[in-house]
Amino acid sequence: MKKEFIIDFPQKLGILFQKRSDVNKPTQIRKYYDQCKSKIEGPFKVRKDFEYVKSELYKMIPLINNAKMKGHISNEFFLYMEKNIYEAVKSPKNFIDGFMPHFQSLIGYYKQK
Predict the structure, then answer these.
(1) Which residues, in sequence order, are CB contacts of 74 under 8 Å at separation 6+?
(2) Could you tell me if 36 and 100 are in contact, meaning their C-beta atoms sit under 8 angstroms apart?
(3) Residue 18 φ/ψ region, left for φ over 0, alpha for ψ in the -120 to 50 degree band, beta for the rest
(4) In Å, how far are 5, 13, 98 from 2, measured between CA atoms?
(5) How far is CA 5 from the centre of its chain?
(6) How is the chain split into domains, by residue range?
(7) Along the 113 residues of the chain, how does pLDDT read in single tens digits?
(8) What integer pLDDT is reported at residue 20 of this predicted model?
């Protein structure tokens, strides 16, 4: 994966998502990453069932939208997740080699408050 997707872009996103202190709290963002890591990526590495991955990622979109509607996350974070989920479901490679490392990098640059 290119440096831009591991370092540059996640740093910029981390700054953007943290501009408002009332939304996108680290625990909220981390919750979605943990869900992707343990509930989706972990089982995929064992079973190699990409249909399961797609189903679970698609289920996240309404949940993230609900969090946006409640004011827990920003529209920008919702759009980031939605766009990246639609890219991730295109192939196992997109999910494992693109979506997960990119999301992990975002978490790495997300400051704890």
Answers:
(1) 17, 20, 23, 24, 68
(2) yes
(3) alpha
(4) 6, 16, 10
(5) 13
(6) 3-106
(7) 677 777 888 889 988 898 887 899 989 999 999 999 999 999 999 999 999 999 999 999 999 999 999 999 999 999 999 999 999 999 999 999 999 999 999 998 887 54
(8) 80
**Residue 63 tokens, joined:** 């949940």
pTM: 0.90
Residue with tokens 């890219």: 87
Cα dihedral 66, 34, 20, 112 in deg (nearest 10): 160
CA 94, 66, 47 angle in degrees (round to 5)? 35
How many beta carbons lie within 10 A of that of residue 19, not counting itself? 10
Task: Name which of 101, 99, 105 is nearest 82 in CA terms.
Answer: 99
